[in-house]
Structure formats: structure tokens, C-alpha cells
Known about the structure:
Layout: H1 2-27, E1 36-43, E2 46-53, E3 84-88, E4 92-94, E5 97-99, E6 102-109, E7 115-120, E8 141-147, E9 150-164, E10 167-180
Antiparallel strand pairs: 1-2, 2-3, 3-6, 4-5, 6-7, 7-8, 9-10
Amino acid sequence: MKTVQINRIMAMTLAGVFVTMMSLAQGDKSTRPSPPAMASGKINGAAITINYSSPSVKGRQVWDPSGTLAPYGKVWRAGANEATIFETDKEIKVDGKSLPAGKYSLFAIPDQKEWKFIFNSQTGQWGIKRGGEANRDPANDVLTVSAKPAKSSSMNERLVYDVTGKGVVLKWENVEVPLAIK
């Protein structure tokens, strides 16, 4: 009888240790296939920060009209995992339109000739819903602007955002999309 109780206690202890280790491992975002990344810089005195998860190409078709990673014509979370966060400490002009200081989820609608970038006031949500569509409530859209994609000078295996003196550039695979900010 005591042996059975000891075995149960040991089994429960081991299960507890296993569950604890698994939950701690899930909390370490740096070990994700699309690890967290951050881009920051100043544009005309405004501090800009973009927090995102950086997916890899891994031999896949990224910009695909059929809808694999970032489908043409559909809202995309502009990264992986949680929704990408765009933050500015001052009001800025994005493609000539005013964006108040604050924190926004950044979404994009990629296309071959023109992209749309959407700044949404809802933040903190997972980037996609269970059905696979972007986790964006259009009622919270603050600003939508257009940008022209271009061919990258080099292949970018991982999604990267660069904050330059003239704006933000999204780079992934063989595409660069500059977003003018003043």
C-alpha cells in the first residue's frame, strides 16, 4: 500500500516538474521559430519603435496570391505570432497623413504594385484568429496609407524592419516596402 502511494507521489511530482518546465519553455519567446525583434530610431525628432516577430522564408513562397504566408490582397499581421506593434512618442505624418503619438497594431495588405499599411488602436492581441485571418477589428483602424513595393538588392531570409531618417522599410524575401514618415 505504501509503495503505491509513493509511486503516485513520485509520478505526480514528475508530472508537475514536466508541466512547469514546459510552461517556462513556452515563455521564452527567443526560442520560437519566429523570434521577437525590434527596430527603433528617430524620424524628425519622433522616437519610433516597431516590435514584431521575425519569420523566415525557409524555402517557402512568401508573396503568394494563393495565400500561404502573406497573401496578396488580404490583411496580414505584418510579422508573426502577436500583432506587430508600431509606437511613436510624437505625432508624425505617414505618407502625408497625421498619426497621433501612441501605440498601434500594424497590419498590411500586400500586393504586387501597391501595399496598404493599417495602423489600428487595438494592441496586445495574437496576430491571427483561429481561421487564419488577421486579428484586426476594422472599427479600431486609425490610419490607412499606401506604399510601393520594390525588389530588394539582396535576399532577406528573415523579416526585418528598418527605421531610417526618411521612414520605415519592411524587408523580406526579395521585397522592400518603404513607408514615408515625416
